[in-house]
Amino acid sequence: xxxxxxxxxxxxxxxxxxxxxxxxxxxxxxxxxxxxxxxxxxxxxxxxxxxxxxxxxxxxxxxxxxxxxxxxxxxxxxxxxxxxxxxxxxxxxxxxxxxxxxxxxxxxxxxxxxxxxxxxxxxxxxxxxxxxxxxxxxxxxxxxxxxxxxxxxxxxxxxxxxxxxxxxxxxxxxxxxxxxxxxxxxxxxxxxxxxxxxxxxxxxxxxxxxxxxxxxxxxxxxxxxxxxxxxxxxxxxxxxxxxxxxxxxxxxxxxxxxx
Length: 259
Prior knowledge:
Blueprint: E1 10-19, E2 23-33, E3 38-42, H1 49-56, E4 64-69, E5 72-77, E6 84-86, H2 88-91, E7 94-97, H3 109-120, H4 125-138, H5 154-166, E8 172-176, H6 184-199, E9 204-207, H7 211-217, E10 220-225, E11 228-233, H8 235-238, H9 245-258
Parallel strand pairs: 3-9, 3-10, 7-8, 8-9
Antiparallel strand pairs: 1-2, 1-4, 4-5, 5-6, 10-11
Helix pairs in contact: 3-4, 3-5, 5-6
């Protein structure tokens, strides 16, 4: 019996991205991501990891290449210097959480969460508020619903940022170094929230330098360096027995630093 074809959730083909003539960040990058996968992207600073997520979110234009999402054209460029075309309807299916929270300081926690659903989707305030409070309770933040960002710890701010992204019911979550700005004792509470989402089969792409976290959450690890994919495989292989010398050097250096 022939199984029906299931297209990749994300297909990135031959992505090129530069900042002026001197700095090439993505150099023909190719990645496919299946539905339900938890892809962790690791690599040296300047290797294109965060740029990749920003391109995926439509925040950075590409020089050339294309991205499909759920089998539909999402981002494309006709060539170097040509206009980047982004399907904004598809973009609304993707949520992103940044390293530095990006919460609105003049709005309380619930107001931060309901702003996009009410403005973008026209959701009624009462319904959005009910969903927001349910999400906050799920993440251990029910008592902080009326607090302002300045009254929260870094870990609480990051959990609020994750809840806010989930308010638009994304089909893919992107996390860009979401624990790197936190004190070590606050990292675990944010990682637990992301592990919750992983247990519910939320597809996600995560950029992190935390190898423990990468090993525990990833269904797949991609090592990027020099704007291309150097190695791609299960976490136990890429992190435990990497095949490429460049990956081995990076893993040994990172684990040595952490020790």
